[in-house]
Amino acid sequence: MKIYTRTGDEGETGLFGGPRVRKDNARIEAYGTVDELNAFLGLARCETLPPLIEHVLEQVQADLFSVGAELATPEPQKLNMPLVGDADVTQLELAIDALEEPLQPLRNFILPGGTKAAATLHVARGVCRRAERWVVHLGAAEQVEISPWIIRYLNRLSDYLFVAARYANYSASVADVPWQHR
């Protein structure tokens, strides 16, 4: 089977179990940004990460496939797709709590950076926030019914990635760099 189909050569793509839409459709932007986030998490996992982070990111990457599939499907409930839910959000919250335990409380904003692993997690956090914005836009502008769990999951994931970046620096004995207003 060839990877190219030529069916998208005119700027359209097919939704899973649905119609063809333009490639600049909000649904395509939403799940495309989730895919980009997943790729950045794969890049982050190429770095040496603390086991607490590595374990969670492996599951998150699998979860993001479910999120992307749900966003790519006009009627995901009819296809009995694996959807993210309350348990997945709770797992992220527990992971955040575990990483925050040894960290000093933040007293000011920090600049993204430190170790390469932390910087990559900060980039992933920014992409996660963009994915969240696209999902919210899709629900509002296109009047598409979006599972509230997707928005909650992405919101919590961006929090997790922020704390994971701080923890990656902490584990490498690299201090976070506070933002200095000029």
Automatic annotation (TrEMBL):
InterPro entries the record matches: CblAdoTrfase-like, CblAdoTrfase-like_sf, PduO-typ
Gene3D superfamilies: Cobalamin adenosyltransferase-like
GO biological process, alphabetically ordered: cobalamin biosynthetic process
Keyword field contains ATP-binding: yes
Main location: cytoplasm
Chain ranges of the Cobalamin adenosyltransferase-like domain: 3-168
Catalysed reactions listed for this entry: 2 cob(II)yrinate a,c diamide + reduced [electron-transfer flavoprotein] + 2 ATP = 2 adenosylcob(III)yrinate a,c-diamide + 2 triphosphate + oxidized [electron-transfer flavoprotein] + 3 H(+); 2 cob(II)alamin + reduced [electron-transfer flavoprotein] + 2 ATP = 2 adenosylcob(III)alamin + 2 triphosphate + oxidized [electron-transfer flavoprotein] + 3 H(+)
Gene Ontology molecular function terms on file: ATP binding; corrinoid adenosyltransferase activity
Assigned keywords, A-Z: ATP-binding, Cobalamin biosynthesis, Cytoplasm, Nucleotide-binding, Transferase
Enzyme Commission number, as recorded: 2.5.1.17
Pathway: Cofactor biosynthesis; adenosylcobalamin biosynthesis; adenosylcobalamin from cob(II)yrinate a,c-diamide: step 2/7
GO cellular component, one term: cytoplasm
Locations listed in the record: Cytoplasm
Family that this chain belongs to: Belongs to the Cob(I)alamin adenosyltransferase family.
NCBIfam families: PduO_Nterm (TIGR00636)
Protein name: Corrinoid adenosyltransferase
